[in-house]
Write a structure and sequence with these properties.
three-stranded antiparallel β-sheet, mainly alpha, single chain
């Protein structure tokens, strides 16, 4: 889900020659928080056996263990991920910042070793997050600051389950476990939209099988319906982005840009309250339809919903077998970076369609 926090630990020994003072403070805080998290881990099995653990929490923890074991069973690289638990002592684990110019769907990116360029930045310190958001907003960026309840270290550490992820319903909790472990299984450098979109497919499609095997048909159907909704929303966001790209290419005057954004906001509301909303099975639109156009929010939403139709086609070509789909995709994308991930996938599907 979110990758960059662990970079603070990895970069601690690189010295300050590579980064400015703000980055040093950021990485230092990230390293300290990561260390605290690692030190606070408690084995989930002990919590399950502890008579002082509330029944509701115990049931959710058992679900996490079962989902983790299922992930390993179907070939995901579970390792020791989600074998421990951390109570972070607050409602929000970290805040995640996205930014984009007001006249371009051009995500601001941050560059890190190993993971490459990432179109968001996670902060344990809310003040630091808001300060960075304010700095970018003053430069004319749309900004979007959102909470995150989990993140992945891509297998560098044995990621624990965070208390901030425990408020989810059983389907979302299982899908989150499978989503995060999928990141350990397949990660393409500098390809955040691909990585997150792939993990969405892996999370919901694997959750569907997981619950079906448990005899929970209603939960399995809900997982499938949630993936259906993600694909529908991906199409909506793609069309909205295309309309905004056309606006930004053809209009340069700031007043005209504002007017055009307002018009596209009205179009977006009509879609959400009309044809798009009617297709959704699990989501309710609510205040989403009233949000004004914000490029950073749109960029952030599309990170998790980029070309989901292409990923679904791959899944179907793999016989609707999520284990095979993930394993074969990982093999296909060995050595890929950035945009080449989707390009390879598209080429592979074109070849298969001709066979």
């Amino acid at each position: 889900m979110i990758f960059l926090v662990f970079v603070g630990v990895l970069m601690a020994g690189f010295g300050t020659a590579y980064v400015a003072s703000d980055d040093v403070r950021y990485l230092t805080r990230a390293g300290i928080e990561q260390t605290r998290i690692l030190e606070a881990r408690r084995p989930i099995t002990r919590l399950i056996d502890d008579p002082g653990t509330p029944d509701e929490t115990r049931n959710l923890l058992r679900l996490v263990v079962d989902a983790r074991d299922f992930a390993a069973e179907i070939g995901f690289k579970a390792g020791e991920t989600y074998t421990t638990y951390v109570d972070v002592g607050r409602d929000t684990l970290l805040l995640v910042l996205s930014a984009s110019p007001r006249n371009c769907l051009c995500p601001h990116t941050w560059k890190y070793p190993i993971v490459g360029r990432i179109p968001y930045k996670g902060f344990f310190d809310p003040k630091m997050a808001r300060r960075e958001a304010g700095r970018l907003e003053a430069q004319g960026y749309d900004i979007y600051l959102r909470p995150a309840g989990a993140y992945s270290t891509l297998g560098w550490f044995n990621d624990p389950l965070y208390s901030t992820a425990m408020s989810r319903d059983s389907v979302e909790l299982a899908a989150t476990v499978l989503h995060e472990i999928a990141h350990n299984t397949l990660y393409v450098k500098s390809a955040t939209p691909f990585n997150e979109s792939f993990a969405q497919l892996a999370g919901y499609r694997a959750a569907e099988v997981f619950f079906r095997r448990r005899g929970s048909d209603a939960a399995a159907t809900y997982a499938a319906d949630r993936w259906h909704d993600e694909v529908i929303l991906a199409g909506y966001y793609t069309e909205l982005a295309a309309r905004l790209d056309t606006l930004y290419r053809t209009v340069t005057d700031s007043v005209a840009v504002d007017s055009g954004r307002a018009a596209q906001g009205r179009w977006a509301r009509e879609q959400l309250e009309g044809s798009v909303g009617r297709q959704l099975r699990t989501y309710t639109i609510g205040p989403m339809a009233d949000r004004p156009i914000n490029n950073a929010r749109l960029v952030a939403a599309r990170i998790y919903r980029d070309r989901l139709d292409l990923l679904e086609r791959w899944y179907q070509h793999e016989g609707g077998d999520i284990q095979k789909a993930v394993a074969d995709l990982a093999a296909l994308l060995q050595g890929a970076e950035g945009d080449s991930a989707f390009a390879r996938l598209e080429t592979a599907l074109e070849v298969r369609s001709k066979e």
